[in-house]
Amino acid sequence: MKRTNSEIRKQARQALDGNWGKGIIATIIYLLIMGTYPNIINFAAPQDRGLLSSSLIWILLCLPFQWSFFVFFLHIIRD
């Protein structure tokens, strides 16, 4: 059974009912962390050295954080 986009949006709004504050705070924290740190790395790293290795480390550190962010919203939708 395939659901329409409007049905999916309705389910998401119902799941967020009473959880809007948590969702907004989680999203702001996520955006601050994901948007701020890479800019610091790009500013502090020399032009040709260290940027690739620091970016790779950043990506590996972000994977668990991104996973937990998605799981947080899946938990809200499923409960």
Describe this entry's structure for a reader.
- The chain is mostly helical and 79 residues long.
- The protein has helices at residues 5-16, 20-44, 51-78.
Q: Which shape, going by the Cα principal axes? A: elongated
* Strand fraction: under 5%
- Structural class by secondary-structure content: mainly alpha
Report the major sheet: none
Q: What is the number of beta strands?
A: 0
The overall pLDDT, averaged over residues, is 80
Order of helices and strands: HHH
Figure out the total of helices.
3
Low-pLDDT segments? none
Helix content: over 70%
Oligomer: single chain
Distance between the termini: 21 Å
List the helices and strands and how they pair.
Blueprint lengths: L4 H12 L3 H25 L6 H28 L1
Provide keyphrases for this structure.
79 residues, mainly alpha
Outline of the structure:
The protein has three helices and no strands.
